[in-house]
Amino acid sequence: MKHTLRQKLILAVSAFILLAACVGGWLLYRRYAPQGQTGDKQITVQVIQLDGDRDSHTYRTDEAYLGAVLTANHLVAGEEGAYGLFITTVDGVAADQSRQQWWCLTKGGEQVNTSADQTPIADGDTFELTLTEGY
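C-alpha cells predicted for DUF4430 domain-containing protein (135 residues):
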C-alpha cells in the first residue's frame, strides 16, 4: 500500500513538472517569437531558378509577415501545413518532387528558420526564393 502511494506521488509530481515545462516553453515562445514590423515598408524578393536566372520583385506593404505579402501578390502558391505555408510554386514554377526539388527561403543569403508565414519583415529587407534540387 505504501509503495503504491509513493508511485502515485511520483507520477503526480512528474506530470506537474511536465505541464510546467510545456507552459513555460509556450510562454517563452510567445515572448521571444519573431515579431513583424508595423507600418508601411518596402521589401524585395528575388526568385532564383535552377539555371541561375533571377527575377526581382519589389513590394510596398504594411503586412508584418512575408507569407501574407507573397500570397497577396500571387508570387507563391503552396500548402498549409502544421508549420505554416509550404511553398511549392514560385512565379509560376512548381518544384518537381520526383527530382527532389524545393523552394529555399533565405534572407540576405542566410537560410531562415521559419515558414514564410512566420517570417517577419522590416523596411528594406531582401529575401530570396531559390529553386533547390536534392534534400
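The chain has a mean pLDDT of 91.
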